[in-house]
Design goal:
This protein is about 40% helix and about 20% strand. The protein contains 3 helices and 4 strands; from the N terminus they run E-H-E-H-E-H-E. Helix 2 packs parallel to helix 3.
């Protein structure tokens, strides 16, 4: 079963590019456009890793991380 990576960025072209590269390497990639969407996706998908943009509308990467860390400890890389 491939590892799942959640890519969170408000720029669609970045999400698409990262998804393409990671998919080619055999990862299952889930994307989200903002922190709120990422929280939902993370709860549903249980990713092995999160690639997280910091500057996003609605909920910043820092706000996402603060909320997410209350329930989960999977690794997060801030972009």
């Amino acid at each position: 079963m491939p590892k799942t990576i959640l890519v969170v960025d408000d720029k669609a072209n970045i999400r698409h590019l990262v998804r393409e590269y990671l998919s080619e390497e055999g990862f299952r990639v889930v994307t989200a456009a903002d922190g709120r969407e990422a929280l939902y996706s993370a709860r549903q998908e249980k990713p092995d890793l999160i690639l997280l943009d910091i500057m996003m509308p609605e909920m910043s990467g820092y706000d996402f991380l603060k909320t997410y860390r209350k329930r989960a400890r999977e690794p997060v890389i801030l972009l």
